[in-house]
Amino acid sequence: MSINSALLAGVSGLTANSAALAAISQNIANVNTVGYKRTAAEFSTVVNSQSAGTGYSAGGVLANQRHFISQGGQLQRTNTSTDLGIAGQGFFVVTEKAENLDAGDARLFTRAGAFRVDSFGYLKNTAGLYLQGWPVDAEGLIETDPSDLNRLRSINVGSVGGTAQATTRAQLNANLQSSQPVSPDIATYNVATNNMATYDAETGTGFKPDFRITVPVSDSKGGQRTLAYSFLKTANPNEWRAEVHVIPATDIDNGSVPANGILRSGLVLFTQDGRLDVDGMVAAETATPGSMLFADPATAVVTLNASDSAVAPSATAPKWTTALGIDDQTVSFDLTASAGGLTQYDSDSIVQAVVTNGTAFGNLSNIEIDDEGYVTAIFDNGVTRRIAQVALATFTSADSLTTANGNAYRVSQGSGTYNLKAPGTGGAGLIGASQLEASTVDLSAEFTGLITTQRAYSASSKIITTADEMLAELISIKR
Question: E strands within 24-166?
Fold first, then answer.
């Protein structure tokens, strides 16, 4: 009977508007939830099959929940470097546990990027989900894979230890005084027995250099070593004797007896306008091999073998002393820098600058994440080291993902499979460090919807009371 169908239609209206009220309540409750995506109830008409001559039968209404998961929220600035937002498409890949993951462990997807470092050094958000990314391999490379979740690892910043970087380059900017008087004892100079490397100002032993430049270097363990350039003016114009040696000499073994720490020795020439005479030294070295400090000053290189080197130490193959236990090291010297280098002008001998790379041992001071998702450890000695790269997952139909606890989502049949991408590639968004994505809930729209839902619910209840009164009239006919 049509009155009965009206009752049932009214009941369906109550049910549908109750579902709409639940969706609005969920939205309002999560207005401040990071990365929350609003939900809305969308109504669809239910039509019953009608038979000719039997009257009209009301069908009613159904409420279907629609999740606006693909809708992006505004990114808001924070003061925490591990807070992450996504500017564009994609989801963070997260897991419920940090370690010992296997293929059976669930992988979830979220836009809630309020990550913090837990007690074991893992990045975990407020829902207790661990951030996944591609780790750096032993060679410092990151190998991404768009389809294999098992290649991802929980990003751990607590396992990063201290670091050191050996010196490989040094730039010298210094002037040697062209009017430097020639030492009266120059005839006694001998690189093997009376050299500048062994000069001791207190005892007066060794040959006193006219000028010395010390170059601080870091070894493979971050220890501080000292290389030195000692110069002695000769009687020939624009010509200096030079030695490159280690201070103290006991830091190296070059096979000489007694050890003098000398790595290289020879002549350095200057042009008449005070610049380093690169061409002249190359020509002189060709005529008399071994006479110049470096065969080609443009490629001035000093090499020291490792402490445990099996090569017998010698003047041509020096090594770090065994007691130091450090790795081999090659240092390239820039003596011909366009802004300076070694010069010979008629002013005081002076060092303008000695610039080297390499650092002493440093401790972790900060973690930074850039817009391409690279997680980088910053050390207090200035060294930076990449740890991992955050992976983003994209879907063909993100709105069809299945919701899970912790403001996360699971893959569903409707969403399609995931595609793992590096941030900023293949349509994936960029990472916003020190930013969080705000909830997409608009309170003004939700409260307006609350009012209309309440009125619709009241109207549906009126259908039921009216149909009830009509049925009561029908029953009273028999009285």
Answer: 39-46, 60-67, 75-77, 84-87, 91-95, 107-110, 115-117, 123-125, 130-135, 153-154, 163-165
For the stretch 380-434, pLDDT in tens is 777 788 899 999 999 999 999 999 999 999 999 999 999 999 999 999 999 999 9
Q: Where are the alpha helices (DSSP H) in 119-242?
A: none
Peptide bond into 248 cis (omega under 30): yes
Whether the CB-CB separation of 129 and 426 falls below 8 Å is answered with no
Provide the pLDDT for residue 10.
86
Peptide bond into 258 cis (omega under 30): yes
Alpha carbons 414 and 395: distance in angstroms, whole number: 10
- 128 torsion bin: left (phi>0), alpha (psi -120 to 50), beta (else): left
327/361 Cα distance (integer angstroms):
15
CB distance 107 to 132 below 8 Å? yes
Cα torsion for 293, 294, 297, 298, to the nearest 10°? -160
Provide the residue type at 377 as one letter: A
List 85's β-bridge partners, or say none: 432
> If we measure between CA atoms, which residue out of 163, 212, 91, 235 comes closest to residue 382?
163
In the structure encoding, which two tokens stand for residue 471, read together?
């049925």
Note the pTM of the prediction, 2 decimals. 0.66
378 vs 222: CA distance, rounded Å: 16
Euclidean distance between CA atoms 415 and 428, whole angstroms: 16
DSSP calls for 345-388: -SS--EEEEEEE--EEEE-EEEEEE-TT-EEEEEETTS-EEEEE
Q: Which residues of 215-240 are buried (b: 16+ CB within 10 A; e: fewer)?
A: bebbbbebbebebbbbbbbeeeebbb
Nearest to 32 by CA among 448, 436, 445: 436
Supply 434's token pair.
């020190």
Torsion of CA 396, 401, 405, 407, to 10 degrees: 50
Tokens representing 218 are: 């870091």
The string of pLDDT tens digits covering residues 16-66 is 999 999 999 999 999 999 999 999 998 988 887 776 666 777 888 989 999
Per DSSP, helices labelled H in 231-363 are 278-287
Residues 32 and 437: their CA atoms lie apart, in Å, by: 10
